[in-house]
Amino acid sequence: MLSERDIRVHSGSGGLIVNLYKTDALVLRNLNRGETDQLLVLFSLEYGKLKVMAHGSRKITSRKRGAIQPLTLTRFLIHKGRYMDSVRQCEELESFPDLFLKMDRICYATYAAELVENSTVEGEANHILLAVLVETLRQLGKGDPEIVARAFALKLVTLAGYKPVLNLCVKCRRNLDGKMLTFSPLAGGFMCAECSREKSEDQTFSCHRGTLETIKLMLAWELSKLGQLKVDAETRTELYYVLKLHLEYHLGYRCATEMFIEKLKNRNSSYNPKL
Ligand SMILES: [Zn+2]
């Protein structure tokens, strides 16, 4: 265990210099640097997104190897460097082994980590988002990974302040009646059938009312309950497009892992999300 004693370093004159800090963080990604090092992208409890070096972590004898793998929750002791902070010690807290048993689980877990990396800024803590991400990784190993991942994306945009309007037409403010609706990322929600006929300045997407109702349930239910939510193929497709448009418009970012997952589905017509 890392103790408080670990974060105090004495200077030569006897004064106390604190140049180490401790934080619990989820490893979002790691990148090889040189022969033996890795650059880690962390989402930490106290400091939000952090980039730190793990020196020597690629050596076969390194004790850091397990704890710095992507999608691991780890307690870090980090040395504050002049140009780049570096890992002094690390201890694995939770590793989500069920994610690695099936391809779709690990794909959607990587999707969730990528969304967090690209929707947050360094140094800004977000305890709630970290807690939701950790719970998402637990549930991805148990429930329907596609639905859990879509629910995570909805919760992420809500925490970022971009929750779509779900209870009224975003144009005329009347109830969203009718079987077909239109989603507009610019307007920030769904339009009724009448308003959908008007020309829109942004890229919109026509979808069934059932997709809106599914989004409401995904936001209202806890992630652990989403396994009970039965979603048909048409609604899954519509959820994909609605979220893709919304994320790209408001976060200004196109998720590479999402594109990879879609390529996998399209390339192999026998792709089975439950493989
Ligand atoms: Zn309307």
Could you provide a short overview of the structure?
With 275 residues, this protein is of the alpha+beta class.
What does this structure look like?
With 275 residues, this protein is α+β, with helices and mostly antiparallel strands. It has 2 domains: 4-95, Nucleic acid-binding proteins (OB fold (Dihydrolipoamide Acetyltransferase, E2P)), CATH 2.40.50; 98-267, Recombination protein O, C-terminal domain (de novo design (two linked rop proteins), Up-down Bundle), CATH 1.20.1440. The chain is built from 7 helices and 10 strands. It has a 5-stranded mixed β-barrel with strand order 3-4-5-7-6. It has a 3-stranded antiparallel sheet with strand order 9-8-10. A two-stranded antiparallel ribbon has the order 1-2. It is elongated, with a radius of gyration of 22 Å. Mean pLDDT is 88; it is low at 1-16.
